[in-house]
Design goal:
435 residues, Rossmann fold, 33% helix, Coenzyme A biosynthesis bifunctional protein CoaBC, EC 4.1.1.36, Flavin_trans-like
């Protein structure tokens, strides 16, 4: 694959050398286009040595090759990392004052920006508007990482890890599952979810403390995205509600973006009616701060620490089940009544065991509390599930007896998603033979 790697003028430019190495080791041909400012941080010689290609950021070098047109036309993928506030602004407004911005205007394939800047710059309304503009045009803009920044400050604005940018780039360059998983003969046959609408939630919610800080979790959104792609491949229309994700949303979905648990709740309320299936794969914060500061919370000169009081977030999954059961007139999915509510509701549970019970026990307890039709149980922990490309899940059903050994699916998140969707289609046939 032919990749253009644009490098913006920020201190995080040094991390892009590792990203370039990931691309080249995967067998891709990479043309690096640094901005003039970025060469103050990493020199052209480094990019040429790592890429094996001549490197320039000027439209006046190798004019006979018409690089400002050719590179964008020939690229299968363009990745900009780091994408500074200045670069995002120039891209959003269609400027073409160097080789990189010219190339972005000529792009025919997917474009991915990995932002890196100071927290206040990322949160500034101008930057947010530029990001929204780019996303509205189909450009993929990752969320920056959170942590230590230049100097002593920390917050949102770190360049995502090179491995995460690489994964997002490969996902962006991969055609949707619906176009690559089925043969031409199979494409003429409807999938098992043909004509059905599936709503999938994904990613991790973020609960703001002040304009630059939030309570969050480690969810990457990879499993939810894999489920959406598997549902698309099965023929469904997919409504995809995305909280914070480390990867782009799948192509072909009806996308709604949210940040907080309350926003997710409202989006689920809106999307569930008319959906045949609701899959709640998002990692929803159990608690949120009871107040939100409009200004950054500062360290106090007297040395005292701020006290943060948490309040419970609503149980979105349980509420969805209750609304469905109230609408159908009973607690059984698929019974007569209001057919606008989902016939099948699938929950996810991320659990750890302790001295009182193991993961399976806690999963069964949660299934009973939530009342959903299936529960996908994850064992989570350090280097387990969150952010990983592989997973292991156990599928729990209310019909299981205490002696039932529930099925366990192990493998890549893509493979596991396909098996979950296959089970969803099977369950849907039993509760809803005809919509």
């Amino acid at each position: 694959m032919r990749i253009v790697l644009g490098v913006g003028g920020g201190i995080a430019a040094y991390k892009s050398a590792s990203l370039l190495r990931l691309f080249t080791e995967a067998g891709h041909n990479v043309s690096v286009i640094p901005t003039e400012a970025s060469t103050k941080f990493v020199g052209v010689a480094t990019w040429e040595a790592l890429s094996g290609n001549t490197v320039s950021g000027s439209v006046f070098d190798e004019v006979e090759k018409v690089n400002h047109v050719r590179l964008g036309h020939e690229a299968d993928l363009i990745v900009v990392a780091p994408a500074t506030a200045d670069l995002l602004a120039r891209a959003a407004t269609g400027q073409a004052n160097d080789l990189l911005t010219n190339t972005l205007l000529m792009a025919r394939g997917p474009v991915l920006f990995a932002p890196a800047m100071h927290t206040e710059m990322w949160a500034h309304p101008a930057t947010r508007a530029n990001v929204d503009t780019l996303r509205s045009r189909g450009v993929l803009v990752m969320e920056p990482g959170v942590g230590r920044l230049t100097g002593t400050d920390s917050g949102a604005g770190r360049l995502p890890d090179p491995e995460d940018i690489f994964a997002a780039a490969m996902a962006a360059a991969t055609p949707p599952a619906s176009s690559v998983l089925r043969t031409d003969a199979e494409a003429d046959r409807p999938g098992p979810l043909h004509g059905k609408t599936v709503t999938v939630t994904a990613g991790g919610t973020r609960e703001p403390l002040d304009p630059v800080r939030f309570l969050g979790n480690r969810s990457s959104g990879k499993q939810g995205a894999a489920l959406a792609r598997a549902a698309l491949d099965a023929g469904a229309h997919v409504r995809f509600i995305a909280a914070h994700m480390d990867i782009p949303a799948p192509e072909g979905v009806e996308l709604t973006r949210v940040e907080t648990a309350l926003e997710l709740r409202e989006a689920v309320h809106a999307a569930a009616p008319g959906s045949d299936v609701l899959i709640m794969a998002a990692a929803v914060a159990d608690f949120r701060p009871d107040t939100h500061s409009d200004t950054k919370i500062k360290k106090r000169d007297d040395g005292t620490d701020p006290v943060i009081t948490l309040v419970r977030n609503p149980d979105i999954l349980a509420e969805a089940v209750q609304r469905r059961d109230a609408a159908t007139g009973s607690g059984a999915a698929g019974d007569a009544g209001d057919t606008s509510q989902p016939s099948l509701i699938v929950g996810f549970a991320a659990e750890t065991g302790d001295g009182n019970a193991d993961v399976l026990d806690y999963g069964r307890q949660k299934l009973a509390r939530k009342g959903c039709d299936l529960l996908i149980l994850n064992r989570v922990g350090t280097s387990l599930v969150f952010g990983q490309d592989s997973t292991e899940v156990t599928l729990l059903s209310p019909q299981d007896s205490a002696d039932t050994v529930p099925p366990t699916f192990t493998g890549s998140k893509t493979d596991v998603a396909r098996r979950i969707v296959a089970r969803v289609a099977q369950e849907l046939e039993t509760v809803l033979p005809v919509r």
